[in-house]
Amino acid sequence: MKPLHLVTVRDLTSSQIKELFETTARLKKERISRARPLAGKVLGLLFQKPSVRTRVSFEVGMAQLGGQSLYVGPVELQQGKREAPKDVARVLSRYLDGIVARTFQHSDVEEMAKYSAIPVINGLSDDSHPCQALADLFTVKEKRGKLEGITLAYIGDGNNVCHSLLQACALTGAHLSVATPAGYAPAVEIVAWSRKQAAKTGSRILCTQDPGEAVRNADVVYTDVWASMGQEAEKKKRLKIFQPFQINGKLMRLAPKKALFMHCLPAHRGEEVTDEVMDSRQSVVYDQAENRLHVQKAILLKVMK
To answer: Quick one: which of 252, 288, 32 has its CA closest to 138?
Structure first.
C-alpha cells in the first residue's frame, strides 16, 4: 500500500479535515494517550530550516502518543548538496516510520513523498504550511463553534501560510479575504484551485490590495511576518512596501468588535503587528500555537497508525 502523505492541504478532503478536527478535540482533552498508539514508532524530523514550534510540537506529540522522534538538522542534512532528496527518502524509509520535512524548496518535499515508503508530512516549505493552516482553522472552530460562513482576513505577504489557508478555507466553507501589496499576491494557480473548490463548499475567496476592505466583515484578522526565512536580503525593501498592511489598533477598529487576532509566529513586533494588538484580549495567538501540538498528533495518528 502507498503511504499517506500530507504535502499540501489539497491532500485532504473536506470530510477528512472534519474527521481530523474531531480527533484533535479528543486528543486535546485526553492530552497524554494511555493507549500509546504509536509505541515502537520513530518519527524523523528532517529540517533544512530551524524551528521552535514545529520541532517541539512534533517531538512532544510523538512522546504523548507513545512514540519517539529523531531530529536531523540543517548541518547534518544538507539535502540537495550532499545527496538528492529521493535518496534521503529511500534510505530513511528503511530506518523510520514517518518523516516531517521542513525545507526551502517545495519540490524537495514532493520528491521525498514520491520516493518514500513511509508517510511524509510537510513541516513547512516555500509553497505550503499545511500543519499551520489546519491548526489555525481548528482554533477558529474552537473559538467560534463552526467554520462555515466564518470570515478570515489575511493581511500581508501571499506566502506559504496564505496558500495553505486558501486551500483549507476553500475545503471547509470558511470565507477568506486576502489583502497583499501589489506584486505580493498569492500564487495564481493556488487562488484558482481554491476558488474552484470554494464553489462546492460555499466559501468565498477575495483578493484585494486594500487591508481595510479585507477586515471590514472579518471574524478573524490574521497576519504573518513580511520577510520569511530565505528572504532576509529583501527585508529593508519589504518593510517599506508592507507598512500600510501593519495590523494595529487603527486597522482592527475597522473590523467588527468581536474579531479575533491570529499570527502563526514568530511575530516581529512593531513590524507586521503592534504590541497593542498582539497583547490585546482579541489575540488568540498562544491558543493557536498550542493547537499545533494537538492537530499534529491527529495527523500523526492518521498517517502512521
So the answer is: 288
Reduce the DSSP state of residue 224 to 3 states and report it: coil
Say if residue 274 is in the same domain as residue 150: yes
Task: Check if the beta carbon of residue 93 is closer than 8 Å to that of residue 118.
Answer: yes
Q: Any alpha helices (H) in the chain, and if so which ranges? A: 14-30, 53-64, 74-77, 85-92, 106-115, 130-144, 160-172, 188-201, 211-215, 235-242, 249-252, 275-278, 285-304
Question: Model confidence over 7-28: pLDDT tens digits?
Answer: 999 999 999 999 999 999 999 9
Residues 179, 35 share a domain: no
Flag whether 159 is in a domain.
yes
Place of cell 478573524: 220
Q: What is the CA radius of gyration of the chain?
A: 19
Q: What is the pLDDT of residues 165-188, one digit of tens each?
A: 999 999 999 999 999 999 999 999
| pLDDT confidence of residue 230 | 74
Mean pLDDT over the full length of the chain: 96
CA gap 249, 224 in Å, rounded: 17
User: Measured in Å, how far apart are the chain's first and last C-alpha atoms?
Assistant: 14
Cα 31-34-40 angle, rounded to 5 deg:
105
Residues 277 and 297 in one domain: no
207 and 261 share one domain:
yes
Domain limits for position 218 = 132-288
Which residues of the chain carry a pLDDT beneath 70? 78-81
65 lies in the same domain as 79 = yes
Domains: count for the chain: 2
Q: Is the overall model pTM greater than 0.90, yes or no?
A: yes
- In this predicted structure, what is the pLDDT of residue 32? 85
Which residues are designated catalytic? 102, 129, 132, 224, 264, 292
Cell of 113: 513523498
CA angle 153, 131, 173 (to 5 degrees): 45
Q: C-alpha grid cell for residue 251?
A: 486597522
